[in-house]
């Protein structure tokens, strides 16, 4: 059996961290692509990572390039390319700039890997995943966005700290768009199989939910420059592993809805089964009226961003 081939587009903080984690877990050979101006640092990062192989004991070829021909026949493509919001740039400007990046990257990917599966991380991720879906012409199950694994991971981190328990025993679920309106589903969250609602007082749970919603901003404020990348990269790699090993994991991902949860023509964070075919299934949960209202508000936020797309 030959090794899998994984392309990571964008050799910035998130892309490089993702590539290194993929190699460490021996999920396949990794090609990192960035723009021509960034070709040398990209090659340097790739070689530096490869030289960690003997020490860490992983077998994976890692290369850096600006030539998409080297990405040909990838089994999986992960898009982290994009521009971060700079002072003076409006959120709408950012959407349109990253939309252009998604379009050009997607054209190259599709040209060289017409049968691949794409995971998108670039923000605003719901609208960027939609852009890649439209531009690629791929079936919806082969274009997936990442946000729920990360949002749930933040929720699980805070819950584990609150209860002084292993993060391994905490499960959580987050629905909706990747933003302050996301909907952490406390009813479906557990510590070692015990419902969180029976372990944590309501006011503390509400505080954890609020902190989860603004988890990305908390990191941005602490870093002072740039946004989170360790946990985002780890989250992407969990999805990548599920696809490459056909694990059929139940993970919250950004999937294209055609009527599920009452929404149409939108990429949104929902519980899914992830395996070799990408999104194998969207799981529809019964929601309370409050949860439905919160999800609807989150959809409105995502649609507002989508309205800015060209
Ligand atoms: N093609 C390929 N790479 C590109 C392109 C392009 N058209 N445009 C920009 N890039 C590259 C940049 O050269 C840079 O190396 O994308 C990389 C982005 O890296 P960083 O600026 O370090 O950003 P990072 O922190 O990795 O975040 C990337 O992930 O979580 C999201 O919100 C985050 O949208 C952002 C993305």
UniProtKB/TrEMBL annotation:
Q: Which GO terms describe its molecular function?
A: L-lactate dehydrogenase (NAD+) activity; L-malate dehydrogenase (NAD+) activity
Q: Which residues form the Lactate/malate dehydrogenase C-terminal domain?
A: 150-306
Binding residues for NAD(+):
10-15, 34, 98, 121-123
Nuclease among keywords: no
Instruction: Enumerate the InterPro entries for this protein.
Output: L-lactate/malate_DH, Lactate/malate_DH_C, Lactate/malate_DH_N, Lactate_DH/Glyco_Ohase_4_C, Malate_DH_type3, NAD(P)-bd_dom_sf
Which reaction(s) does its UniProt entry say it catalyses? (S)-lactate + NAD(+) = pyruvate + NADH + H(+); (S)-malate + NAD(+) = oxaloacetate + NADH + H(+)
Q: One GO biological process from the UniProt record? A: lactate metabolic process
Residues bearing Phosphoserine are 147
Q: Where does substrate bind?
A: 85, 91, 123, 154
The record ties this protein, via CDD domains, to:
LDH-like_MDH
Q: Please list the residue ranges annotated as the Lactate/malate dehydrogenase N-terminal domain.
A: 5-145
Pfam families on file: Ldh_1_C, Ldh_1_N
Q: Matching NCBIfam families, A to Z?
A: MalateDH_bact, PRK06223.1
Provide the family line.
Belongs to the LDH/MDH superfamily. LDH family. Belongs to the LDH/MDH superfamily. MDH type 3 family.
Its biological function? Catalyzes the reversible oxidation of malate to oxaloacetate.
Q: What is this protein called?
A: Malate dehydrogenase
Species assigned in the record: Peribacillus psychrosaccharolyticus (Bacillus psychrosaccharolyticus)
């Amino acid at each position: 059996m030959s090794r899998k081939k994984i392309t990571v587009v964008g050799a910035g903080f998130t892309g490089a961290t993702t590539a290194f984690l993929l190699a460490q877990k021996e999920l396949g050979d990794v090609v990192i692509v960035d723009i021509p101006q960034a070709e040398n640092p990209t090659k340097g990062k790739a070689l530096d990572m490869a030289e960690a192989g003997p020490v860490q004991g992983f077998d994976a070829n890692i290369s850096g390039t600006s030539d998409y021909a080297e990405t040909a026949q990838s089994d999986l493509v992960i898009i982290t390319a994009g521009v971060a919001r700079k002072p003076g740039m409006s959120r709408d400007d950012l959407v349109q700039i990253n939309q252009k990046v998604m379009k050009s990257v997607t054209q190259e990917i599709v040209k060289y890997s017409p049968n691949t599966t794409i995971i998108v991380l670039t923000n605003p991720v719901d609208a960027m995943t939609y852009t890649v879906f439209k531009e690629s012409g791929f079936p919806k199950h082969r274009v997936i966005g990442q946000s729920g694994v990360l949002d749930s991971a933040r929720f699980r981190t805070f819950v584990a700290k609150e209860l002084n328990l292993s993060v391994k025993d905490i499960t959580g679920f987050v629905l909706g768009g990747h933003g302050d309106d996301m909907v952490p589903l406390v009813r479906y969250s557990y510590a070692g199989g015990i419902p969180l609602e029976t372990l944590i007082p309501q006011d503390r749970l509400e505080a954890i939910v609020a902190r989860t919603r603004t988890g990305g901003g908390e990191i941005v404020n602490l870093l002072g420059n740039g946004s989170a990348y360790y946990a985002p990269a780890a989250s992407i790699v969990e999805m990548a592993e599920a696809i490459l090993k056909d694990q059929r994991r139940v993970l919250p991902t950004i999937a294209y809805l055609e009527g599920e949860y009452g929404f149409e023509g939108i990429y949104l964070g929902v519980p899914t089964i992830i395996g070799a075919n990408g999104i194998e299934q969207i799981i529809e949960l019964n929601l309370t009226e409050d949860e439905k209202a919160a999800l609807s508000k989150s959809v409105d936020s995502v649609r507002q961003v989508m309205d800015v797309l060209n």
